[in-house]
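Technical note accompanying the year-one report. For the benefit of new consortium partners, we illustrate the data format agreed upon in the data management plan: each record pairs a sequence with a structure-token string. No post-processing was applied to the example shown here.
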Amino acid sequence: MSNKLLISGCGITFAGERKTWSHIARAIGVKIIDVSGPAISNQTIINEIVEGIIKHSPTHVICQLTSIGKLDIGIENDLQIQELVIPDTIRNFTWNGIWPSSVSDEHISKQHYYKWLYSERYETRTLANQLMMLENFCISRGILLKVVQGYNINWNLAPAFNLTSLNKSFIIYENYKSGEYYKYHNFSNKNTVPNILYQCVLTGIILDMIGFEYNKIKLSNIFKKYDDVKDNMQ
């Protein structure tokens, strides 16, 4: 059986308007089953992975975690569209039937949620348990899983958490900010998705992490293409 790579994540991975490492991996010949989404929460990321595994039977899985605190809301009627989605200045879209509102609190219902209902400790513990179950699910099916943090998560809030598929010391956004390509980041759009130069670097990091073969010469050529125009990226 040939290798099949299933990936999920937030906008860092999602192949939308911004070019991400999943775009680049495809461009160098890696076949990907992409179930990532824009601005989605960790809950949705994991849900998409589990359903993707059942549907596609991959041999390898990348789970790119996003930040804690996001809330995805299932959109069931037009009133929700009119009241929640359309007026929001940042997350004014839906994806696969949900409103990936992220941490937007412009609507009073979201303000009440974060003031009275939300708990970082509880969310982190739940996420940790979901990831441990996902790892065991993958092991039972002979799937190689790698979990990659997009943003920092305080795992101290989940003291029982232990995951062999996660390198806690590597965090995509922190690695991006500490590197040489962050100075070319477009700060005007209020978006934290790394720029194309870092996405090229990230492609190699993630594919090496999962042990997936790829054309390093093609990747180098794509990087050089964008590196040659980096001074005009902002």
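Partners are asked to follow this layout when depositing records. The domain at 5-69+120-232 is CATH 3.40.50.1110 (Rossmann fold).
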